[in-house]
Design goal:
The protein has about 375 residues and is α+β, with helices and mostly antiparallel strands. The protein folds into 2 domains: about 5-165, no CATH class; about 200-360, no CATH class. The chain has 15 helices and 12 strands. It has helices spanning about 5-15, 20-25, 30-35, 50-65, 70, 85-90, 100-115, 150-185, 190-195, 205-220, 275-280, 300-315, 315-325, 330-345, 350-360; strands at about 80, 125, 130-135, 140-145, 145-150, 225-230, 235-240, 240-245, 255-260, 265-270, 290, 325-330. The strands form 4 sheets. A 5-stranded mixed beta sheet has the order 8-9-10-11-12, sandwiched between helices. It has a 3-stranded antiparallel beta sheet with strand order 1-3-2. β9 (about 255-260) and β10 (about 265-270) form a beta hairpin.
Amino acid sequence: MKHDFTKVIEKTLQNNFGENSEEIYQKSELLQYLNIKTKSANEGSKARGSFGNLYASYVLIADYIALNFDTQGGYHDYEGAKFSSLFQRQRALPFGAKLQNHALNHRMNQEFRKYFPTCEYVPIIRDSESSRYWINENLLKIKVNKLEHNVAHSVIQIIDSYIETKKGAFNRFIKTIEELKNISDKKPKMAYAFITGLLAPNIDARIFEIVSYAILKYFYHDQVVYFGFDLDNIEKHNLKLYKTGRTNANDGGIDFVMKPLGRFFQVTETTDVRKYFLDIDKVQRFPISFVIKSDIIVEELKEKIRGKAEEQYGVKAIVNKYMDAIEELFNIPKIRENFEKAVELGYQKAILDEIILQSKLEFNYEDDVLIE
């Protein structure tokens, strides 16, 4: 598979290995894996970035190089890198501040096996009792013409190039939104088209969640309910939507909560309805509204969920309990409709402000400072 960033990989290998570069690539599953994972590099900030698994290998190989195992050998006697140290290094990397431990523990190895089922090695070796980790050195050493070549430095250079490319794309994304905010009064159609363009199935899940939140926040902003403990003390409340966690964090939390109704919203990019059941179960079947990164019509999604529930549980009473726990489904067309209504109410600029704010928070982007 070749894509725009493949040229960067080829150039890096050519600089490091000259005429042997092509053969080294063909013999290295790890380099081929990097090629797969860096496909989004030149697709802009809105394309999903692949950082978790890349960073898992990055910090292990950086540890390998820092201790001179690439030049002096002896890695088989190494006691291994501590998980706490590796995890801290991951989170210090650009876009890595909110990464979880999944990649180091199992996710990278699982995905690697999926792409290279016949490879006899997995990238990450770990001892769960001691929480020590190693990169599989067999994947770093490639023999060509009876000579052994170590690709450790090449892997680091390739991932560094990927990071720089994604940083540049995200910095441009932030600047574009800020410019649109400044000219939104003069060119509202341009700003409108930009935001609706962020609501698509191929958009990065984090961007989709941020944009969906901003739109729903202002869609509900002027809607009111009346609450009180007795009829003589009824008060008027505007609906307020709060973002409760980091985007796409796989942290088991609920994404948005609405006050004062206590509505739960969960954002998902999957149409695997088993994920919906898990979300419903974790709040003991308290009603949840799902915001789904899909163009599939709401009625079809509901039928798909019901069908899967019937297949999985087979008991009508249980199926009905799960279906009753789905308060509302929002697909991409419905979010766009809500955006149109919010714009009609004059909230387009406020939505842009919210997207900027949440994006900067998500990616640790400070005012007037590019991502470092």
